[in-house]
Amino acid sequence: MKHKRGFASDNNSGIHPDILKAIERANTGHVIAYGDDPYTERAAVKIKEHFGEEAEVFFVLTGTAANVLGLTALTDTYNSIICAETAHINVDECGAPERFSGCKLIPVESRDGKISADSIRRHLHGFGFEHHSQPKIVSVSQPTELGTVYTTDEISQLAAYIHKYNMLLHMDGARLSNAAVSLGVTFRDMTAGAGVDVLSFGGTKNGMLFGESVIFFNNKLASDFRYIRKQGMQLASKMRYISAQFEVFLSDDLWKKNALHANKMAQLLYNEVAGIPGVTVTQEVQANSVFAILPREAIKKLQREYFFYVWDEDKHEVRWMTSFDTTEKDIYDFAALVRETVS
Question: Which of 48, 76, 77, 299 counts the most CB atoms within 10 A of its CB?
Answer without folding.
Answer: 299
